[in-house]
Amino acid sequence: MATTAKPKKKILAGQNGQARSEERAKVLKTYKIFIGGKFPRTESGRYYTPTDPAGEALGNICSSSRKDLRNAVVAARSAVDGWAERTAYKRGQILYRMAEMLETRALQFVEELKQQGSTKAAAKKEVATSVDRLVHYAGWCDKYQQIFSSVNPVASSHFNFSVLEPTGVVGLLAPESHSLLGPISAIAPVIAGGNTCVLLASESLPLCSVTLSELMATSDLPGGVVNILTGSRKELLSHFIGHMDINALIVYDASTKDKVEVQSGSAENLKRTFMRNSADLNSEKAENPYLIQDTQEVKTTWHPIEKISAKGKSY
After folding, report:
1. Of 48, 54, 240, 250, which residue is the least packed, with the fewest Cβ within 10 Å?
2. What is the DSSP letter of 51?
3. How far apart are CA 299 and CA 194, in angstroms?
4. pLDDT by residue (tens digit) across 187-222?
């Protein structure tokens, strides 16, 4: 069952002008998970309650289970074809729309970042950087193909083209250190390239990730393209690694032990794996098209060249 915060005393006027106190328990918000464009409660029924630096409860956060992960992957897989078939221009417009909505709700995200320990200045900077990052990848949606695709020289009468195609469903384990910029930086390059994803939010700083899902649900982003879970990385990491329908896995700030587990476990199902550092989130390393390329497959096509003989016959 969801919990409530510590009761707060409220002073009221009693009979004959005497003061009396009344205790009232603050009702904490229950932050649900985000799967297929909807907000189900965790299948496990479990919650945890992170606190702010002063020890006050921030909310009731779902502890996602393996079943929740499976449901999220099913939703992501069902959305792959539709999202990949969207034009690059359309994907860019949708990412830009998300940036617009984040800009208009900036004060809410600043407040949530402050609740989780950020200073006002740091919170404003993180929100502004997050908006700019969405705009940045919105602009790359219709350009990365021009950078990475090619016409290859061959020694026969053929054209040979190499183009990028999305790899499919991508698992994302967000950094613990950035409640908003972390999930934005993880999600943006993945969906800009036509993939869908399942993100595990920061366990200690989850509020902005869940509020971000509320923003996405009211944007033009189709349901299932982004799915967001909350809970324990220690509990869910092995399930992300072992799931046979997750095509790639991106892990932020993995420990040495986690890196070994990811690399050895992913070898069994040929899952692409990438280890990233949250220290790079405020640098140019977090804003380049190679992060889009990481979760792309190269498709090469051969096409014969029709030649015309001197007698007007093709061969």
Report:
1. 54
2. B
3. 15
4. 999 999 999 999 999 999 999 999 999 999 999 999
- Between CA 236 and CA 243, with CA 242 as vertex, the angle to 5 degrees is 90
How many Å apart are CA 23 and CA 37, to the nearest integer? Answer: 39
Q: What's the pLDDT tens digit per position in 247-268?
A: 999 999 999 999 999 999 998 8
Task: Name residue, tokens 């992913």.
Answer: 266
3-state secondary structure of 173: strand
In a domain, residue 174? The reply is yes
Q: Can you spell out the DSSP letters for 84-149?
A: HTS-HHHHHHHHHHHHHHHHHTHHHHHHHHHHTT--HHHHHHHHHHHHHHHHHHHHHTTTHHHHH-
H runs (alpha helix) in 193-255? 207-217, 233-242
CA–CA dist 190, 197 (Å, integer) = 7
The number of domains in the chain is: 1
Whether residue 60 lies inside any domain: the answer is no
- Once rounded to an integer, what is the mean pLDDT over residues 88-104? 97
Residue 229: which domain range?
A: 35-44+66-304
Burial class (CB in 10 A: 0-12, 13-18, 19+), 283: exposed
